[in-house]
Amino acid sequence: QVQLQESGPGLVKPSETLSLTCTVSGGSISSYYWSWIRQPPGKGLEWIGYIYYSGSTNYNPSLKSRVTISVDTSKNQFSLKLSSVTAADTAVYYCARRVRFGHYMDVWGKGTTVTVSS
Amino acid sequence: QSALTQPASVSGSPGQSITISCTGTSSDVGSYNLVSWYQQHPGKAPKLMIYEVSKRPSGVSNRFSGSKSGNTASLTISGLQAEDEADYYCCSYAGSSTFPYVFGTGTKVTVL
After folding, report:
1. CA atoms of B9 and A23, how far apart (whole Å)
2. How far apart are CA B51 and CA B31, in angstroms?
3. What is the pLDDT of residue B97?
4. Which residue ranges in chain A fall short of pLDDT 70?
5. Is the pLDDT confidence value at B49 over 70?
6. Binary contact (A104, B52; C-beta < 8 A)
7. Closest by alpha carbon to B90, among B49, B57, B30, B43?
8. Using a CB-CB distance cutoff of 8 angstroms, which residues of chain B are in contact with residue A94?
9. Mean pLDDT lowest among A57-71, A73-87, B41-55, B94-108
10. CA neighbours closer than 13 Å in the CB half-sphere of residue B91
11. How would residue B93 be classed by pLDDT, with cut points 50, 70 and 90?
12. Sign of CA dihedral A55, A58, A60, A66
């Protein structure tokens, strides 16, 4: 079945750009929406944004000025970039699949911890 | 967009039934039958338990059920088992224009 795996640096300095990649295996990236969701330590889930395989995006307004999500269908990957990070961006970052004709995330990656610290 | 409101904690004994509420507004929960529920064990990724208010994905126990009334959605776990101890989050679609998905504050379920 489809599996998602996040990858990227676990430590990012303040003011720099956080970059993560999610690799989709066991299925095609086509015909689905692909989301990023994060969870600060001890807190709840926060939706960051999603990208359709064709490239259209939608972002959380509170992060929109700093977020870019892109997709590489040839590699079956999609990516997250979050600029000008602060300690408040420290979190576990999850990638997840949203079904095409529904509004729920049915497959999740295991998550990757990103710490913002100098 | 504010987070959906859930009780911080709910507890029950094995075999009992518990219900977790998820209160939103007329802009999210009240407007769409697009509420989903996720179970999260410590250190693990969330797992989809209910979608579109009351539908269960393949493989999810029928002890889990969902419903909605007005601006409040609910998740009921019947025949509570030790493995059900986890955090639970609701999520609602809130329209496509600016902020499509809002999560709940999360509920810690404890099996006594």
Report:
1. 35
2. 15
3. 66
4. none
5. yes
6. yes
7. B49
8. 45-46
9. B94-108
10. 27
11. very high
12. positive
By the 8 A CB rule, do B56 and B62 touch? yes
Instruction: Inspect the interface and report whether the beta carbons of B47 and A46 lie closer than 8 Å.
Output: no
Residue B30 backbone zone (phi > 0: left; psi -120 to 50: alpha; other: beta): alpha
Pair of tokens at residue A20: 């993560």
Report the relative pairing of strands B9-12 and B107-111 from DSSP bridges: parallel
Checking if the pLDDT of B33 tops 70, the result is: yes
Percent of chain B predicted with pLDDT > 70: 98
Instruction: State the smallest CA–CA distance between residue A50 and chain B in angstroms.
Output: 10
Two structure tokens written together for B13? 């004994």
Q: Assess contact for A95 and A6: CB atoms under 8 A.
A: yes
Q: Which residue has the tokens 């407007």?
A: B31
Query: Are A105 and A75 within 8 A, CB to CB?
Result: no
Structure tokens at A21: 């990649």
Residue type, B104: G
Structure-token pair, residue A1: 């079945």
Q: Supply φ then ψ for residue B70, to 5 degrees.
A: 60, -125
A7: which 2 tokens? 């990858």
